[in-house]
Design brief:
4-stranded mixed beta sheet; two-stranded antiparallel sheet
C-alpha cells in the first residue's frame, strides 16, 4: 500500500507545482483606450504626441511597480483607461514664456475614468469595477516625492489600488 501511495503523492505534488502561480506572470496590465482624445495628458516640456505618450508610459510604469508590491501572486490587475485629466492645466493666453507651463490649482483636480478587473491565473475574474474618480483635495496629500511631475496622479492611483486589491488572494 505504501508503494502505491508514494507515486500518487509525488504526482499530486508535481501537479501542484504546475498549478502554482507563475512568478513571471505580470501583476498588472495597463491599457489606454483612444488616448489621443483624453481630456488632458499634455506634457509641458514636450507638447506633442511623444510628450503625451511619455506621460502615459510613466503612469503605466508606476501602476505596474505598485501592483508588484500590492497584488498577490497568481492575481493580475487589468486597468483600461477611457480618460485622464492631469492635475492642473496649461492655461492659454499667458505670455510666451508661460504658454506651456502647467498651473496647478484646486480648480483643476486630477480625474480618471477606467474599468478594472482582478483575475486569477486561470483567468477567473475575482473582482471588477468601473471608476470615475476626481480628487478635489489632491493638494492636501502628503506625497513622497513632490518633485515628481505626476506625484498627485500616482498617489491617487496607488491609494485606489490598495483598496481595490484588499482581500483578493490568488490561487
Amino acid at each position: 500500500m505504501k508503494t502505491r501511495f508514494l507515486p500518487a503523492l509525488l504526482a499530486f505534488c508535481a501537479a501542484g507545482t504546475v498549478l502554482a502561480a507563475d512568478p513571471a506572470a505580470p501583476k498588472a496590465i495597463v491599457n489606454f483606450d483612444n488616448w489621443q482624445k483624453y481630456t488632458d495628458i499634455k506634457d509641458q516640456y514636450i507638447p506633442t504626441d511623444q510628450g503625451e505618450q511619455s506621460i502615459l508610459d510613466e503612469l503605466k510604469q508606476a501602476i505596474i511597480q505598485d501592483a508588484n508590491q500590492l497584488v498577490h501572486d497568481g492575481v493580475t490587475l487589468t486597468i483600461t483607461f477611457q480618460d485622464i485629466d492631469l492635475a492642473g492645466d496649461i492655461e492659454p493666453g499667458r505670455s510666451a514664456q508661460w504658454d506651456q507651463v502647467r498651473i496647478v490649482k484646486d480648480i483643476y483636480p486630477p480625474r480618471f475614468k477606467f474599468t478594472w478587473s482582478l483575475a486569477d491565473a486561470a483567468g477567473k475574474v475575482l473582482k471588477q469595477g468601473k471608476e470615475d474618480m476626481t480628487d478635489t483635495s489632491f493638494q492636501m496629500r502628503a506625497t513622497i516625492d513632490p518633485s515628481d511631475r505626476l506625484h498627485y496622479e500616482k498617489d491617487i492611483l496607488k491609494d485606489w489600488m490598495q483598496g481595490a486589491v484588499h482581500g483578493v488572494v490568488g490561487s
